[in-house]
Amino acid sequence: MKVVLGCDHAAFEGKEELKKYLTEKYEVIDEGTLSADRCDYPDYATKVVKTVLEQKIPGILLCGSGIGVSIVANRYKGIRAALIRTPEEARLSRQHNDANVLCVGARINSAEEIRAIVDAWFEAEFEGGRHSDRLGKFADLGEVV
């Protein structure tokens, strides 16, 4: 399975650590940033979103808080980005919301916590049923990439 990653400068080190961890299990596409030099999170969130939509693969976005990248990602039709702080939230975001982009804060969660969040996210599956009905209510909202 493939997964796409992206981050800003505040989360560069966290993304690099996570990439090493994920490479053991998945094919990882790194959309940047490729250094800790100052950059703008909307640019990298947009790159990840486009890859998620084009390749129909999950995406993971990191920034200092996770808030900025989640706001950007959720502007796009077809993206269900979830800002996650705990493994339980990660499971629920997949089970109930069919989240296709996971957003985390590298300044909020430790590398160990982020790995646990990512593992829980990948282990969970969408439950469908009543949750599908709810997702259908906003499936056509947002901007098309």
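Above is the first protein from milestone M3; the second protein from the same milestone is given next.
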Amino acid sequence: MRYFEVRKPRIEIIPMIDIMLFLLVFFIMMAMKMIPSNGLVGHLPSSSTSQALPQPKIMIELHKDGSLFVDQQPMTLDGLRAKLHSTATDKTIVSIAGAADVSLQQLTAVMDICHQNGINKIGLATQNVK
């Protein structure tokens, strides 16, 4: 009579756990894509008239100590010049983020390199002050 025993139905939860973990990883990865992958300097200058800019193709960070980072990679001014010469087009958008105490000379040097390579769309990252 064992063949006719009625088995109690049960829900298998292991496949459901697998699916939930997959969804969790998927949403974490998508959330990471939504957050800008480019880090910004912590103390940006402030402006009351700042506005949203389009997503930059190249992000340049200027630090107080004179160091320069392009897309989170350390670089010199000559390295920046070579990178922009090889990749820049007339539609390239560059955003420059610098600490509030970065020298105007350093900012001007980076902007000159951008203009020399035909980049006319340059944005300056600021904190919005209300």
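Note on the second protein: DSSP finds three helices and seven strands in the chain.
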